[in-house]
């Protein structure tokens, strides 16, 4: 079996499957319709959005839940009914109703095409060989598919964090368990700037904080979202008065470093030092030509080598405070500021 064909089976069915012939030998079609199929992934029962279908001896199941449970990320084009699934270096494109799929540029045949049923996208179950690294068995007595996957638990917990039932830290969400520092999880998807859906090594699925202190997980998309969240929060204080030496324990007034400290703490739980000189020692240095949203910019001021700090807001803009007249505001990172620029630091 070629690598690409194996990868296809992983997507179209590692999670998925037993062959039509095996099905025909062990389970008559009549019995299929009267007894619902249950699907277990690593011992945990999956709850598909719609009931599996039996089409000419081949079982079709909802694809999204099974793909995402094993780490594949899906996008859906409703115009041409095409799904694109990506996992690591594998990209699968499939249009419902077709007898072929495209895997990394190679055409692969499907014995039974996928279809839409009651608004859900269904794809055929496929028999999976041992060579895929996943084991799929048919349990005739329980009328179930048992799937043992080979998930890579790539993300380390850096600080104890709650695994929650929903992406919410309020009482609406219940704690499933506490994940200790050193534990490993698999990130299923980025919910938003602040939450990740994950799977644990003991096969629990839930949500954890995406804030940088809790895990070593990162991605360009998550960093972009977190930069936007940081700036949106900071802009809530536009116009807040400037007072030199303002306490970081309140939000009625700010100076440059108390503002930056408060924004990073409240948004991403990043605890920065109090004054700009010490803040310039945190994180890693980045060049002025590689700035991204959320980077810290440091400038000379008040005859100090470093006496002012601002947050880079993208598009050559900076968010900061230094003026009693303007308070917290956004302005252009122009030649005046570039003359006083000392260094930039990246802290997430």
From TrEMBL:
<feature type="domain" description="NlpC/P60">
    <location>
        <begin position="224"/>
        <end position="348"/>
    </location>
</feature>
<dbReference type="InterPro" id="IPR012854">
    <property type="entry name" value="Cu_amine_oxidase-like_N"/>
</dbReference>
<keyword id="KW-0378">Hydrolase</keyword>
<dbReference type="GO" id="GO:0006508">
    <property type="term" value="P:proteolysis"/>
</dbReference>
<feature type="signal peptide">
    <location>
        <begin position="1"/>
        <end position="24"/>
    </location>
</feature>
<dbReference type="InterPro" id="IPR036582">
    <property type="entry name" value="Mao_N_sf"/>
</dbReference>
<dbReference type="InterPro" id="IPR000064">
    <property type="entry name" value="NLP_P60_dom"/>
</dbReference>
<dbReference type="Pfam" id="PF08239">
    <property type="entry name" value="SH3_3"/>
</dbReference>
<keyword id="KW-0732">Signal</keyword>
<dbReference type="InterPro" id="IPR038765">
    <property type="entry name" value="Papain-like_cys_pep_sf"/>
</dbReference>
<keyword id="KW-0645">Protease</keyword>
<keyword id="KW-0788">Thiol protease</keyword>
<dbReference type="GO" id="GO:0008234">
    <property type="term" value="F:cysteine-type peptidase activity"/>
</dbReference>
<dbReference type="Pfam" id="PF00877">
    <property type="entry name" value="NLPC_P60"/>
</dbReference>
<dbReference type="InterPro" id="IPR003646">
    <property type="entry name" value="SH3-like_bac-type"/>
</dbReference>
<protein>
    <submittedName>
        <fullName>Copper amine oxidase domain protein</fullName>
    </submittedName>
</protein>
<dbReference type="InterPro" id="IPR051202">
    <property type="entry name" value="Peptidase_C40"/>
</dbReference>
<dbReference type="Pfam" id="PF07833">
    <property type="entry name" value="Cu_amine_oxidN1"/>
</dbReference>
<comment type="similarity">
    <text>Belongs to the peptidase C40 family.</text>
</comment>
